[in-house]
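WARN retry 2 of 3 for item q-0093 after timeout on previous attempt; input resubmitted unchanged.
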Amino acid sequence: MRMPLFQKILSSLVVALMISSCSPTIIVKHEGNCCLHHQTIAQSSQERSIQDVALNGKVYSALWQQNAAEFRALCYQAFNIATEVVNQKVGGVQSRPLAIITDVDETFLDNSPYAVTQAKRGNEFDLDTWLEWTSKGAAMAFPGSLRFYNYAASKGVTVFYVTNRNENDKAGTIKNLKDLGFPFADAEHVIVMKETSNKEMRRKAILEKYDVIMYLGDNLTDFSELFYKKSQSERNHQTDELSEAFGTLFIVLPNSGYGDWESAVPGFNTKGTPEEKDKAILKSLKGY
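OK item q-0093 returned
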């Protein structure tokens, strides 16, 4: 029997009302307490906001550094270029021994586990927990780094590790490098920060005895004093002026987690509150 038209319309309205009165949910069963957690699929956009970027951004940077194949590719790319530079520089007549000056953290040692642990504690960086981390000597090497530094050493190039880790970090750093198999892992070649974070005097001391063929780092101050404590616009200008040095004399490794670029953001204060940091960060971002 065919349903009368008004009954069809009534049935459709009932079904529509039943559907509209129900919110689609994800049901998650927690084995520990046997409770059901209902989470609305279509969350209102007002429930999400950008906040505590300085802390949460380090977590996302660590996620990328630890998981992205693209990060590995950038490391291989940098060390492949560095290998070509070594090949171009060795073999000729040399009046003085050749050397490489390299930074350590986020140039070839991965400290993202420290950033993750600190974020879980609700903190960023502090010297006490940093020493706790460096003393473990547990940082892993960036992809391609161990092969490169040992290759350079095999070609007669001395490696100097000029780092802004301090004297307290030195023993753990040397242990870390030795355990991983890096060359020149000793007190003479691991040169830590003493009085200033400016590396220029340490670089000049090496240049007195060696021809430095290359600098490796993740921070522009790893290459030149021209970038030391400069504004964002000055850093960008100097980078443009020295553009031809990148990939030849200067080899940059990727680090989106931290660096002098942070303090160069206009209005950003590393000691500020999360709200103050958010304000400076969001003011420096462009949307559409």
